[in-house]
Design goal:
The complex is a heterodimer of chains A (about 130) and B (about 300).
Chain A lengths: L3 H9 L4 E8 L5 E6 L6 H17 L9 H4 L7 E5 L3 E8 L7 E8 L5 H17 L1
Antiparallel strand pairs in A: 1-2, 1-5, 3-4, 4-5
Chain B lengths: L23 H8 L4 E5 L2 E6 L2 E6 L6 H7 L5 H11 L5 H7 L5 H19 L8 E4 L11 E2 H18 L4 H4 L2 E3 L10 H7 L8 H8 L3 H13 L3 E3 L49 H11 L1 H15 L1
Antiparallel strand pairs in B: 1-2, 1-4, 2-3, 3-5, 6-7
Helix pairs in contact in B: 3-4, 6-10, 8-10, 9-10
The chains are: A alpha+beta (about 130), B alpha+beta (about 300).
Organism (chain B): Streptomyces ureilyticus
Protein name (chain B): Transcriptional regulator
Protein name (chain A): Roadblock/LAMTOR2 domain-containing protein
């Protein structure tokens, strides 16, 4: 039954992990952070990642074909992946029974990170964080 | 040459921000690693060894509301946990160890409720703050937040709201939908807020009904105001004083703050007296109708935005 810190430490054990955070995308608050952040600033990174997550969660273009209502999923998006020349970012939405707007943010070095593995593991962590 | 040291009087603009500092007293308490409760005009912050461990305020749903409204826990289980572990200051531990709440859920809701209440507690205040040294909060250790981080976040949140829509009127007043027929589709989380807008409810009422942090509701409401979908039910300048209901004395929650609360608190907790919304009577209802005219509503929003700049 992991708490926020255990969840983040588990994310940091993934190959290539540079930093991780649990972020609220309505307010832009980092609820927990571990490791490094781009520019060394977790709070700014959280606020910026939250903006992106909010757009992805709210725009209908990114919802499943069945429509968010039919799929019964809130938010309709599972994750977001961003790559640049040297790092990956994986943002994984956390589905909760209570009213929330939270995602996991993992920052990976591209040289030794495994994007497919990180994506799968992050999804599992998001589930365990709220199910116990 | 004389140096004028007194600042000029404030211009009679609508209040939009609360000055640069947050709370010098809170910083001092952090430095001395104090344990106890800081009582401010709008609520209280509980400190353990100089870190904030709990915050409460009538305008934001507490941890209990976040957990119970979302169906994580029923109200009876919450009461039982407070009754059994409140005296030892281990309610959080009890909830997790007894398998009622997952640790991650407790932490997410606790931190959300803490920053949420602190945003209001650290808001503008016209009364002096007090600090009672004493025991740590009855919830017990879940996650604690450094004072500096809490202050930074509070300032960032003020700025965030101001950036979305500079008029704070939707934060406290009863709200109406401007023109239901002309509303564009809105995202699901905004729709949940919009469904609660009925001409009477305020942001605080909506937050309690949804079991959602109040700041989240403020964000969605300011977005809805920007989009011209929601406005305040009655504009303060056009509301005659006689329409306001009699002010009820604010109940003091402070002195008992370190002890477990009564099982149920009134869902309509007391807002600060000066923010009490006017009751909706026929005269206000007419004002609502008037503002439902899209042109009038647009002009009004434009005026409000200019005033708030």
């Amino acid at each position: 039954m992991p708490g926020i810190d255990e969840c983040l430490l588990e994310a940091m054990r993934l190959p290539g992990a540079l930093g991780a955070a649990v972020v609220d995308w309505t307010s832009g608050l980092a609820l927990g952070t571990v490791g490094d952040a781009p520019g060394g600033d977790h709070e700014t990174t959280a606020a910026e990642a939250a903006e992106l997550a909010r757009l992805a969660a709210e725009h209908r273009a990114f919802a499943p074909e069945a429509g968010p209502d039919q799929a019964g999923q809130d938010p309709p998006v599972e994750d977001l992946i961003i790559s640049n020349v040297d790092t990956y970012h994986v943002l994984r939405f956390v589905a909760t029974s209570f009213d929330s707007s939270v995602f996991l943010h993992l920052w990976l070095a591209r040289s030794d990170g495994n994007l497919a593995l990180a994506r799968i593991r992050l999804g599992e962590m998001a589930g365990r964080l709220v199910l116990g | 040459m004389t140096v004028v040291s007194t600042p000029p009087p404030r211009l009679p603009l609508r209040r939009r921000s609360f000055g640069p500092g947050v709370s010098p007293m809170l910083r001092r308490l952090a430095e001395e690693r104090a344990t106890g409760v800081l009582l401010r005009e709008r609520g209280s912050l509980h400190l353990t060894d100089g870190q904030v461990t709990y915050a409460e305020c009538p305008e934001s749903p507490g941890l209990d509301a976040l957990l119970t409204t979302g169906g994580v826990l029923d109200a009876g289980a919450w009461r039982e946990a407070v009754a059994r572990a409140g005296a030892d200051g281990q309610v959080g531990r009890f909830l997790v160890d007894s398998g009622r709440v997952a640790e991650g859920v407790l932490e997410l809701c606790h931190v959300a409720a803490l920053f949420d209440a602190a945003y209001f507690v650290l808001g503008p205040s016209s009364a002096p703050a007090r600090f009672r040294y004493g025991a740590a909060h009855w919830l017990g250790p879940v996650r604690s937040v450094p004072v500096a981080a809490l202050e930074r976040e509070t300032l960032r949140r003020r700025e965030l709201l101001h950036r979305i829509w500079p008029d704070p009127a939707t934060d406290t007043a009863p709200l109406v939908r401007i023109d239901r027929a002309a509303e564009p589709p809105v995202p699901a989380r905004q729709e949940a807020v919009l469904d609660q807008v009925d001409g009477v409810r305020t942001a605080a009422d909506i937050s309690l009904a949804l079991g959602r942090p109040a700041f989240h509701t403020l964000v969605e409401l300011r977005r809805l105001a920007t989009a011209g979908i929601v406005t305040t039910a009655s504009q303060p300048p056009t509301t005659p004083k006689s329409l306001k209901p009699p002010k009820s004395p604010q109940q003091s929650r402070g002195p008992r703050a370190s002890r477990p609360p009564e099982p149920q608190r009134s869902p309509r907790a007391d807002p600060a007296p000066e923010q009490q919304p006017p009751a909706l009577d026929p005269a206000s209802a007419l004002l609502i109708q008037a503002s439902a005219d899209p042109d009038v509503a647009l002009l009004r929003r434009l005026r409000d935005a200019l005033e708030a700049l």
